[in-house]
Amino acid sequence: MTATLEQLAEDTAVHLLPRDSFDRIDRDGYFFEAGPLRASVQRIRLGDVAAEVEWTRAECRRRGLETVEWWVGWHAEPSNLGEQLISLG
Predict the structure, then answer these.
(1) Which of 3, 88, 5 has its CA nearest to residue 31?
(2) pLDDT score of 49
(3) What is the Cα–Cα distance from 84 to 24, expressed in whole angstroms?
(4) Which of the pair, 17 or 76, is modelled with greater confidence?
């Protein structure tokens, strides 16, 4: 399936070709990508935000990563995802 320009703009990493130094995990509700220095979360469509934030934190700790970026695009769910992420720290 070919991505639209809108999909490429919102969730860029999801559509990149695999790279040797990055692990990609397509979770139920979002896409997690981890490199040697940082991780990112994209294409976010979550039900239980707190549980997935905890999984992401645990995975980053396991990998020794201190930085994770949450790319909250205009199609991210729930609609108040940004506020929930801020409240979860």
Answers:
(1) 3
(2) 94
(3) 24
(4) 76
pTM of the full structure: 0.83
φ/ψ of 25, rounded to 5, equals: -125, 115
**CA torsion sign, 79 to 81 to 83 to 87?**
positive
Across residues 16-20, what is the average pLDDT? Answer: 79
d(CA 56, CA 44): 12
Q: Residue 8: CB partners within 8 Å, gap ≥ 6? A: 15
In angstroms, the Cα distances linking 55 to 1, 37, 60, 69, 75 are 29, 18, 9, 14, 22
Measure the CA dihedral 2/71/83/61, to 10°: 130
